[in-house]
Design a protein that fits this description.
heterodimer, A: 387 residues, alpha+beta, Rossmann fold, OB fold (Dihydrolipoamide Acetyltransferase, E2P), 6-stranded mixed sheet, 6-stranded antiparallel sheet, 11 helices, 21 strands, disordered C terminus, B: 291 residues, mainly alpha, MetI-like fold, 0% strand
Chain lengths: 387, 291
């Protein structure tokens, strides 16, 4: 039995159907990140777990107990809000201790708990200040302290880093991850930032339009996306998606992609059984930028490299990498090359494609075309959990 | 001469003109107050000499003492002090209760929205636009039924009822811009309806509380129509007493006593403005940002 079980949950606001049957199950100690564009329903789902929004249909189970109708304060859940939501008229200590005070924890015990939480977050010297006198990062810490101090079963984070500047955001991200590792707590975290999702999560749930698109480990979601949306949403720079035609070339199943410098044919090695049925039909191919490199830095041990000569359209150095734009299947695609590769726009160069990482999508339904055995192994855990 | 200093000189000139205009208006507005003050400190003979603007040659507190303690109002000759305390007895509960109710209304209308909350707010708001005169007769009837006619308690009720519209408007607009996330956080922390109000919202409402107090205090203290309609004799507020004092002078008009009594009636509102005035604009602004 999973620790947090979101079972076929629906949310309706009058006529609008905001969440359309979400199924997610996670284990104790998991770090679940709900990620998706704004309006996908991720915050609504979080508020429903917290008890701040009603559940229209479905069950919410925490540690085996159905908590749909339990008052927020009795769910043993703490939440960190996007705006931090610190009580402006109370000191930092008052803010952190408020939850305990409401639960009638004796004063001495409360003070000790507040001190411990403050120590953990290194804000002991701020305990007597008011929220108005704190910087953004300090407020963030106080908000986390308020959640930590109650030692709840489940932590909820609602885009907690979105109000911080870029550098602080990266620091706090690391800190949240360390905190999670140290305390082993179960966390549900909402963000629209896919990098946050990748770095923090032990499980990612990608959502769009009130529907769960994919649930899995960050690597699985990244390498093995369920559909075009997930493929395009996760990763930065995003996955290259090009139109291609599946054909047979000397008995070998290949994908043929148009390009100004002559068609490129790449052999199909992944999901070959499924793609057999797509022979002589158009598909959309997905290839991560790091799966298209210069021949010298291609990963020949794990991957299966296929080279082609293409025209360089644009060169974008980032310092750590060199992104090269070329034209393929009517679109500009990004290739990640080693920095300092001697390339200039307009020049022809050899590109190494790692075809073992290539994925294909149905252009109509936008769903992934994948082998059947593989698909069943990638189904969400909740669907398998029949107990 | 450089262009810079020319501009600077033109600015100084404009500024001087501005101050001259402001000063003129200030003098015009302050003139009646000045006349009241100097008259209240003059003996009657000096007033009869005619120069209203002159400072008293012979300063005296006698008119103030008389106005406070021995001037005749109707048949009673004990000054306005009793009526002054009547007004205090009316204004304090009326302001506190209408303010608290308004704060509660604002809290519920913004943070615990219910079906039809907009209509309810619209109706409450509507009460701000009902003229005093319209409710005189129905209110007299209600006070009669409740057996609190001709008492300060009755006036307290009238002012609470009349004040709720405004206080609700103030607090609702203020709380509309108060972050909902704070209420949600408090709910998760285990705070209930009243705890959230008294511990989270109310301590953060100082600016709008000040606005409400100033507004209600001035309105209730300065009210004459309700006072004169619903009370008589001993239970009248000071505004009514002042009117009666001026009207019941027999023979020679004691202008100095009248002025002193008028000052007594005006001082509390002045004090409230001086103490809380700087919050007034700030609070009104903060309430009006979001509606």
């Amino acid at each position: 039995m999973s620790f947090l079980h979101i079972n076929n949950i629906h949310k309706r606001f009058g006529e609008t159907h905001v969440l359309k049957g979400i199924d997610i199950a996670i284990e104790k100690g998991d770090f679940l990140v709900l990620v998706g564009p704004s309006g996908c329903g991720k915050s609504t789902l979080l508020n429903m777990i917290a008890g701040l929004d009603d559940i229209s249909e479905g069950d919410l189970l925490l540690d085996g107990e159905r908590i749909n109708d339990l008052h927020p304060s009795r769910r043993d859940i703490a939440m960190v809000f996007q705006s931090y939501a610190l009580y402006p008229s109370m000191t930092v200590a008052g803010n952190i201790g408020f939850g305990l005070e409401m639960r009638k924890v004796p004063k001495a015990e409360r003070r000790e708990a507040v001190r411990r939480a403050a120590e953990l977050l290194q804000i002991e010297n701020l305990l007597d200040r008011k929220p108005g006198q704190l910087s953004g990062g300090q407020r963030q810490r106080v908000a986390m302290g308020r959640a930590l101090v109650r030692e709840p079963q489940l932590f909820l984070f609602d885009e907690p880093l979105s109000n911080l500047d870029a550098k602080l955001r990266v620091d706090m991200r690391t800190e949240i991850k360390q905190l999670h590792q140290r305390l082993g707590t179960t966390i549900v975290y909402v963000t629209h930032d896919q990098i946050e999702a990748m770095t923090l999560a032990s499980r990612i749930a990608v959502m769009r339009g009130g529907e769960l698109q994919q649930l899995g480990t960050p690597q699985a979601v990244y390498d093995d996306p369920n559909n075009l949306f997930v493929a395009g949403f996760m990763g930065s720079p995003s996955m290259n998606l090009v139109n291609a035609r599946i054909t047979r070339d000397a008995g070998v199943l290949v994908a043929r992609i148009e390009s100004p410098s002559g068609d490129v044919t790449l052999p199909i090695v992944r999901d070959r059984a499924a793609l057999e049925t797509w022979c002589d039909r158009d598909v959309i191919l997905g290839l991560r930028p790091e799966a298209i490199t210069d021949p010298s830095s291609a990963n020949r041990q794990d991957g299966e490299i296929h080279e082609a000569e293409l025209e360089v359209e644009l060169v974008e150095p980032t310092g750590a990498d060199l992104y090269v734009v070329t034209r393929l299947g009517g679109r500009g695609i990004n290739a990640r090359m080693r920095p300092g590769a001697p390339l200039e726009s307009g020049q022809r160069a050899r590109f190494a494609f790692d075809v073992s990482r290539m994925v294909a999508f149905d252009p109509e339904s936008e769903d992934r075309i994948r082998d059947v055995e593989k698909a069943s192994a990638e189904m969400p855990a909740a669907a398998l959990d029949v107990s | 001469m450089s262009a810079g200093s020319l501009v600077a000189r033109r600015n100084t000139l404009a500024r001087a003109l501005l101050y001259a205009v402001l000063l003129t208006f200030a003098v015009i507005y302050l003139m009646p107050l000045y006349v009241m003050l100097v008259t209240s400190f003059k003996p009657l003979e000096e007033i009869h000499q005619g120069n209203m603007l002159a400072l008293p040659q012979d300063w005296t507190f006698a008119p103030w003492r008389e106005a406070w303690g021995s001037a005749c109002i109707g048949l009673e000759c004990s000054g306005v002090h009793g009526y002054f305390f009547n007004s205090i007895k009316i204004v304090v509960p009326a302001v506190l209760i209408s303010g608290l109710l308004g704060a509660f209304n604002g809290y519920v209308l913004t943070k615990w929205r219910f079906r039809g909350h907009k209509i309810v707010f619209g109706l409450i708001l509507f009460s701000c636009f009902i003229p005093f005169q319209i409710i005189l007769l129905p209110m007299a009837r209600v006070l009669g039924i409740l057996h609190i006619a001709n008492s300060t308690t009755g006036l307290v009720l009238v002012h609470i009822v009349y004040g709720i519209g405004f206080t609700t408007l103030f607090f609702r607009n203020f709380y509309a811009s108060f972050p909902d996330e704070l209420v949600r956080a408090a709910k998760l922390d285990g705070a209930g309806f009243f705890t959230i109000f008294f511990r989270i919202l109310l301590p953060a409402s100082i600016p709008i509380i000040v606005v409400t107090i100033i507004w209600q205090f001035t309105n209730v203290w300065n009210d004459f129509l309700f006072g004169v309609s619903f009370t008589s004799g001993d239970s009248a507020p000071i505004t009514v007493a002042l009117n009666n004092l001026v009207n019941s002078s027999t023979g020679v008009k004691a202008y100095n006593v009248n002025m002193a009594a008028a000052m007594v009636a005006a001082v509390p509102t002045l004090i409230v403005y001086i103490l809380a005035g700087k919050y007034f604009l700030r609070g009104l602004m903060s309430g009006s940002v979001k509606g």
